[in-house]
Amino acid sequence: FALQTGAEVDIAPLEALARHDWHGLFGVSGEGWSPELRVYCVGHANLEKLQQPYKSMTGRCLLLHTPGARPEVHELDHLMATLWQPGGALSKPADLAPLPHAGIPDWWLGAEQDARFYADSSVFRPARPDRSATPIWSA
Fold first, then answer.
1. Cβ(131)–Cβ(125) under 8 Å?
2. How many CA atoms lie within 13 A of 47 on its CB side?
3. pLDDT digits (tens, 9 = 90+) for 77-87
4. pLDDT more than 90, % of the chain
C-alpha cells in the first residue's frame, strides 16, 4: 500500500501511522481518518487477502506526503521502483509501516467500528520497542 497525504492534509496522519499511534490515525471511532488520505494497493498479497478478508488483516505501507498536487499513479510507481531498487532506501517489508485494513472507516463490515473496535490490541498492535518509526517520504 501507499498511504498518501497532500496539501489538503497535514503530515500528522502519516506520523501517527509511523508510530503505531492508532488513536492519532483513526480517532476513537474512526472519526480521525481524513477523507483526503489516499490508499493505493500495490501488492498482489494484499489483493489475495482481500478475497477472504479478516479483521486483523494488515498490509505494509509506504508513507508518502505530497505537499503539491497529487502525483499520477505512474509517478507513484516510479517512486516505489526507485526506493526498492538494489541499494535503494527500502530493502525489506519491515521498512514499511503496517496498516490494519479494518481500521479504515467503512472498510470492515463485520462489526461496528466504534471505540471498542479500535481498542482491540490484537488488530491495532503497539509498536515494538526495538523498532524505530517508519520513514515518511515526500514526492
1. no
2. 5
3. 888 888 888 88
4. 24
